[in-house]
Design goal:
This is Regulator of SigK. The chain has six helices and eight strands, in the order H-H-H-H-H-H-E-E-E-E-E-E-E-E. The protein is α+β, with helices and mostly antiparallel strands.
Length: 251
């Protein structure tokens, strides 16, 4: 295997996807190639975070509200020792039965609402986990693609970025380390550089100094990427000067 071919195996090696003979050959190459060693360290750190799922806890105020309302429901009185059947509308037992029935209905409605809410939360979490899993699978496919090419460079503020591009997958992944958090209410937005025209490629996690982003959309004619600081939620087009510009690696 040629040295040029060995340079393309960093993603597959980080994901333990190389056959045994290629792994041994690549590790011999790795001992003498600092550029590949750096890429393997960055890709391995990213791969370690790919299996994370999303979960949400019920809000504290919902539980407290239900418990508070339950304490306001009056308990049903003991049964009357008077004559059987004396439960007229003006009697004590009749009034307490109404309160008890109302309490049961309120409790059933409250806990029924909790159950519906919890079920919705569970469904949302499953959908988010499924979406994250699909994205992670696509990200891994790009990193381990046989034609994956990588390019690394220093970013603003001493951060480091690596972009991995696969023509076969028509996708790109951006890996960042040491990124300073964006200003409050802002987010880093990534853009494809389509021969001078910027096309949105997704948002970075504003709370992570290290991030792996599967760029949103196909690479197509893009020759590079840029990063700008945008309002939370992103922008339709760049509104600030780029904090980073990187060319995509070429064959």
């Amino acid at each position: 295997m040629s040295t040029a071919e060995l340079h393309t195996l960093t993603g597959a090696y980080a994901l333990h996807a190389l056959p045994e003979d290629e792994r041994r050959e690549f590790e011999r190459h790795l001992a003498d190639c600092e550029a590949c060693a750096q890429e393997v360290r960055e890709l391995s750190a990213t791969a370690a975070r790919l299996g994370l799922a999303v979960a949400e806890a019920p809000p504290r105020e919902l539980r407290e509200r239900v418990l508070r309302e339950i304490t306001t429901v009056r308990q049903e009185a003991p049964p009357s020792h008077g004559r059987p059947g004396r439960t007229g509308g003006g009697g004590r037992t009749g009034r307490w039965s109404v309160y008890a029935l109302a309490a049961c209905i309120a409790a059933a409605a409250a806990f029924g609402g909790v159950a519906v809410w919890q079920n919705q939360v569970a469904q949302d979490a499953r959908q988010e986990a499924d979406r994250a899993q699909r994205q992670n699978q696509q990200l891994a496919q790009v990193l381990s693609a046989p034609d994956a090419r990588t390019s690394s460079g220093e970013l603003t503020g001493g951060a480091r970025g690596t972009v991995v591009v696969s023509e076969q997958e028509n996708r790109a992944v951006f890996l960042a380390s040491g990124m300073a958090p964006p200003p409050s209410g802002k987010v880093y937005q990534i853009w494809f550089n389509d021969e001078g025209t910027m096309r949105s490629a997704g948002l970075m996690n504003p709370s992570a100094s290290e991030d792996a982003v599967l760029l949103d959309g196909p690479v197509d004619r893009a020759t590079g990427m840029g990063i700008t600081v945008e309002p939370a939620g992103g922008s339709a087009e760049p509104t600030s000067d780029p904090v980073a510009l990187m060319d995509f690696p070429t064959a």
